[in-house]
Amino acid sequence: MLANHTPNFKQKSLIIFDWDGTLMDSIGLIVESMRHAATQHGLTVSDEATRGIIGLSMQTAVATLFADVPERHDDLVQDYGAYYVQHCHDDTLFSGIAELLHSLHAQGKTLAVATGKKRQGLARVLPQTGVEALFSVTRCADEAAGKPDPLMLRQILQVTGKAVSDAVMVGDSVHDLRMAHAIGMDSIAVTYGCATADVLADEQPSAMVDSVTALAALLV
C-alpha cells in the first residue's frame, strides 16, 4: 500500500534520483553481468535474485547472492565489474528521462543522484548521457554508506542546504525507499526498473508510477 499522505511533489525543490533502473536503462546488463560472473565460478544465480539486490553496493550484493562461498566474493565482484565495463557503453537513459531532467532544471529545481554504484562506475557512464551538468551533487556507495543506510541522503541535504521536507527520493528498488523512509523523506517508486509494483507497494512509498511520463506528471 502507499503512504497515507500524497505530497505536492511539484513544490519539492530537491529531487534525488537513483541511477540504475530509475534514470539509466541498465537492469538487463546488471542481470547479465551477474549471471556471467557466476558462470565463471561454476555457480548459478536467478535473474529474480539479482534484480532483488540492485541498488546495494556490489560487495553487499555479491555477499547476499553467494553467501555460501565467501572466499569467492572478491573474484565475483571483479568478474562482474569487468563484464559490465566491457558492455556498459550501450546503456542509455530511459526514454523521456533527459527531457524530464532538463525541464526540472529549467524550473530551478536542484537535482541529485544517490546510487549504489562506486564513484568510478558512475563517472564512467554519467558523462556519456549528456545530463551530467544538470546535477548539483551525486553520491555513491563508496563515498558514504550503502543503501538502505540514509547517509548519502544526509550528505546531499547538507551539501545543498535543503531540509528533508524539501526533498523527494525517486527510485526503483526497496533499498531506495527504505533509505528515504529512514529519515522521513518522501519517496516516489518507479515500477519500470528492477522491482514489481507489489514489492514496492509493501514499502509504502509516497507515490508510485509505472512510466517516465507518469513520473514527469508528478514532478513538473
Automatic annotation (TrEMBL):
InterPro entries: HAD-like_hydrolase_sf, HAD-like_sf, HAD-SF_hydro_IA, HAD_2, HAD_sf, PGP-like_dom2
Domain of life: Bacteria
MF annotations from Gene Ontology: phosphoglycolate phosphatase activity
GO cellular component, one term: cytosol
UniProt GO BP: DNA repair
UniProt keywords, alphabetically: Hydrolase
Gene3D superfamilies: HAD superfamily/HAD-like, Putative phosphatase, domain 2
Family matches, as NCBIfam families: HAD-SF-IA-v1 (TIGR01549), HAD-SF-IA-v3 (TIGR01509)
Record protein name field: HAD family hydrolase
Organism: Faucicola atlantae
